[in-house]
Amino acid sequence: MSFIDPMTTDDPYARSAQVYPRLDDELLVRVRKYGKEETVAAGQVLFRRGDRRADFFIVVEGEVAILRQDDIGAEETLMVHQAGQFTGELDQVSERTLLVEARAIREGRVIRVLHGDLSGLMSSEPDIGELIMRAFILRRMGFLYHGQAGVLLIGDPNDGDAQRLQQFMVRNAYPLRTVDPATDPAAADLMRTFGLSASGLPAVIAPDRLVLSNPPLSLLADSLGLTEPFAPDRIWDLVVVGAGPAGLAAATYGASEGLSTAVIEALAPGGQAGTSSKIENYLGFPTGISGQALAGRALVQAQKFGARMAVSRAAVALDCDSHPFKIRLEDGQTLRARAVVVATGAHYRKLDVPDYERFEGHGIHYAATAMEAKLCDGLDVVVVGGGNSAGQAAMYLSRYVGHVHMLVRGEGLAATMSDYLVQRIHSSPNITLHSHSEVTGLDGDRLLSGVSWTEHRTGRTTHVSARALFVMIGARPNTDWVMGCLPLDSSGFVLTAAPMEGVAGASPYQTMRPGIYVVGDVRSGSVKRVAAGVGEGSVVVQAVHAWLAAQTSD
Fold it and tell me: Is the pLDDT of residue 9 over 70?
């Protein structure tokens, strides 16, 4: 859910009038309809770090401080809100735990809007809602830019586990500051303070002094409050499994049209598209947008309308023999849903090369974001793949690395890649295209240090010193969890049924099981494009409505 490129030099706090706007008297009169004015005492805590579902406060008189804890737990004031200003940031529109504390500095008056009423305020008063949402987004961008109100990650940046933890937090827009024990002079003192040894790294340290030594992502998500809890007896109108572009579109349209909507995501919003460094042919963004930024905006839209989100929670089974349907998660939870949208997408295939598994996380990457670009700064890299994702990765990396070697098995790129990318790659002095070539060797000790490939027409093998190999080939669908419930094609993608005239909820995206739909890359025969996924996710909601209406009338 990251809204900014971590390599940007633009400080979000520089836009202070938008980060900390003031509501004038006319706006305050309108806001009062949704809340209640009350007196606060000096020192009164309005909400604490770690709270969920905190209320929203507008200062009428007095001052309210926003506080965070630094690396060793000391309190620091981030902002003091005065008359007309309001509390909150992005966690205000979700049920994630809050990152900061709000405390009245002196006696005063505030308007309290209950957490459950904030979405009604923003929907009914769109101009105020836009002002509030922009401020929330910019405040979170400021946290990310400055590494405030989040956690410390101590570890070798080239270590696979450190990269795994950092990538998870970055893609979920959780603020962090990284500390390299080999180069950061503060690392030794921090490790002594928290009783850490080299064998305990990488480690995540939270402001409440919680220390997590190389945690699994599910434990990290729970400890940081990234996963929203679900009531076990609740029946959802719609459960969307997968938070790529198609899933987020379905969640946004479903929630905005009044359906109780839950989203299940195994890793982070955005899916495979979330790892794209820059998407330039998506309608409405003439200068391009990163996959992370697009996913972040889509998630905020869905949450603004009331969709609930659980990350680091993979679906492991779908029970479609009874209704409501049951989705079992890897942590043992079961969600019940009147309708299900399958949007679990696909992931890149791996290369069949000796020592491949040994270098995963130690030089082999499946995404080319700012994090990977920093690791490869000034070094030569190899990109494997001939699709748009590989082309976007090559162009992005060429701005930071020494040289990009791009390998494809075919004659060239024209048949598999958008023309604008083909032309840029051919004209870039920092990218060399190697056609009819496949990776045949990897070498290095703990970290990847070299890549070899063979040109099949001549049989000639080339070796280069390279610290990174980016693999972006093929697509393997994430459909293990629906086996036994939904029929799949020979490649493992979910088959759809021909729409049946007169059947409620009929749709090109319906599966063989009425009430269960499939959209995006995981659907057999789908066009593997971001815009196509967004379109499918948005239009499938009409069929969901028809299906639910038919069940109600039965």
Answer: no
